[in-house]
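Comment thread on ticket #2218

A.B. wrote:
> Attaching the input chain for the structure job we discussed in standup.
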Amino acid sequence: MTKEMPSAHVDPVSGPVLDLVLLRTFLEVVDSGGFALAGEALGLTPSAVSGHIKRLESAAGAALLARTTRSFALTQAGETLYAYARNLVLLEREARARLRGSRIKGRLRVGSSEDFAGAWLADVLQAFRRAHPEASLELRVGVTADLLREQARGRLDLVFGKQCARVQDGGELLWEEELVWAWGADQPWPPAERVPLAVFPEPCVYREAAIAALGRARRDWHPAFESASMAGCVAAARAGFAVAPVARSQLREGLRELGREDGMPVLPKARFYAFLRSEEPAARALVQAVAQTGRRRRFAS
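C.D. wrote:
> Ran it. Output below, let me know if you need it in another format.
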């Protein structure tokens, strides 16, 4: 059974009110990237989701989504409302929690790969702090395999990391993202017969994926640059010193993607996971915040 459509509310002075139910539906559509997926998450049919969006657009007095036959994009009004809607929903959630007296407290020890932290950290910390002001975080950035070993020793409560193969046990899949070859936007390619590679030290799933892909393509390569810092590998790529395998979200100004036309093989997808030691409320709240931010950033890109 699907949920009922919310009725329209009209303020006698300012006009139609932006209903929180409709705002939640709007956020879910954007975060999940589709009406059907949003409906699954909310317990609504796709037609009901579409109805929510139409009612919200009517209340807002502007189109929020520019639709095509296969996809949609946020309009300028949609981008504006998205930012406000996220804050309104977070404030409503915080108000409910405080009225119930159920606050998340304590210190959460978190491990994260560097590229993962760079993609979500600022947005998530802001949202988490607002919703749970009495909780604190201790963040350790490193290689996923090393962080998981630290978690197994009881030194980390939660790990955000990446794998190129599906994790069978213990990991909660948050999203998948393409790996790409990053190279300096203004640098000539190829620089030499052998591919100069910028990689993390072993063990690293990006390194393993890159070497395996080059091996299958029978491309000669050599480790031209090795660093435990993603920023270091990206700098080497931007300078044209070495090509770096990165998640697509890591491409930024000064970088371009190398593809088959450049003689580079296709890389596998990276899968981003959350590894929890226990289902304590603070850890679960942070996982949800990261998942929402990750979906939103991938949609925006």
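A.B. wrote:
> Thanks. Noting for the ticket: Confidence is low (pLDDT under 50) at residues 10-14.
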